[in-house]
């Protein structure tokens, strides 16, 4: 398979067009694994712009302040800078990021940012609207797999104390004057280990590329045919993660993706993105309808994936 086009799916008039939207989502999940949502009600373009403005303010804070909540691997929470070494490249992504897990919001989020007092509240709201949209999408996938429509909403219920869904604010460094010293990739090739990722990009921040052709969630399938995914503020790039590929017995595809660094004539300014990773509650059993793979709990799946994903991660700098 050699995709040249990432499907664009309009969510306009969601309630009256449910059937058509569901068909398009399932087709995109089966045949591609990446798609772009447009015309969604929430998170609205304005909410997304406000979130990017908040993220820019956060990353502009001095490193000593951000380092008060350092990345802790066991908790998949906190701030890192130049510390995530992707196994595919062996070098650290030139970026900084902050991971916020919904259920750890009281202890592990920066709740003391005097320059950005609205930080906690805005992140919370953005996660909640990302959650609602994710569950709408996942209800179609649940039915397609023969599960009840609420199957994934129950597995990802944010009202429980332990739901692992995570938002990640990302900022890839400004490379003005430094192009020749920078690694080729802003984010090295990887798959996401969650169930479903919503990725928010900003116009001007191109570089995301995907590699089609992965047949099993256990395989690497790193080909050499990469397709660019355009970055436009207000649209939402969605991709299937490894856990959903496993849960669907490999029917829905979790693709390798990466972020290419700009060349000398590209946009050298910092690139922001925001990811919302849907991860189920730890004791949920991941087992597909045909039983192709043995059942694992989400907690077991995430621990082994974190090991692969972050194996060589350095401590915070
Ligand atoms: O920044 C991007 O566009 C992609 C980020 C990503 O793939 C990730 O954090 O898993
Ligand atoms: Fe990713």
UniProtKB/TrEMBL annotation:
SUPFAM superfamilies reported in the protein's UniProt record: Clavaminate synthase-like (SSF51197)
Pfam families documented for this protein: 2OG-FeII_Oxy, DIOX_N
Keyword Membrane tagged: no
Entry keyword Iron: yes
PROSITE patterns in UniProt: FE2OG_OXY
Keywords: Iron, Metal-binding, Oxidoreductase
Top-level taxon of origin: Eukaryota
Domain Fe2OG dioxygenase span(s) in chain numbering: 163-280
Protein family per UniProt: Belongs to the iron/ascorbate-dependent oxidoreductase family.
UniProt protein name: Fe2OG dioxygenase domain-containing protein
Species whose genome carries this gene: Lentinula lateritia
């Amino acid at each position: 398979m050699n995709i040249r086009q990432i499907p664009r799916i309009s969510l306009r008039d969601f309630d009256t067009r449910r059937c058509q939207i569901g068909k398009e989502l399932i087709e995109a999940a089966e045949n591609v694994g990446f798609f772009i949502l447009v015309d969604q009600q929430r998170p609205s373009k304005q909410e997304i712009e406000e979130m990017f403005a908040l993220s820019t303010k956060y990353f502009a804070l001095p490193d000593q302040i951000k380092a008060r909540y350092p990345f802790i691997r066991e908790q998949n929470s906190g701030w890192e800078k130049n510390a995530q070494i992707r196994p595919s490249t062996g070098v650290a992504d030139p970026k900084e990021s902050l991971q916020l897990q919904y259920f750890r919001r009281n202890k592990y989020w920066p709740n003391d940012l005097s320059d950005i007092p609205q930080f906690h509240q805005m992140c919370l709201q953005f996660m909640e609207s990302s959650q609602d949209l994710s569950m709408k999408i996942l209800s179609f996938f649940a039915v397609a797999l023969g599960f009840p429509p609420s199957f994934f909403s129950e597995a990802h219920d944010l009202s429980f104390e332990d739901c692992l869904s995570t938002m990640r604010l990302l900022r890839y460094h400004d490379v003005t004057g430094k192009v020749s010293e920078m690694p080729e990739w802003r984010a090295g090739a990887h798959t996401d280990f969650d169930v479903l990722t919503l990725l928010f990009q900003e116009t001007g921040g191109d570089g995301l590329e995907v590699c089609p052709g992965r047949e099993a969630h256990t395989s690497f399938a790193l080909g050499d045919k990469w397709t660019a995914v355009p970055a436009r503020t207000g649209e939402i790039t969605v991709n299937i993660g490894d856990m959903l590929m496993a849960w669907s017995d490999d029917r829905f595809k979790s693709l390798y993706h990466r972020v290419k660094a700009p060349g000398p004539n590209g946009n050298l300014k910092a690139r922001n993105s925001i990811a919302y990773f849907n991860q189920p509650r730890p004791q949920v059993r991941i087992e597909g309808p045909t039983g192709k793979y043995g059942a694992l709990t989400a907690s077991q799946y995430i621990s082994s994936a974190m090991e692969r994903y972050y194996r060589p991660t350095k401590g915070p700098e």
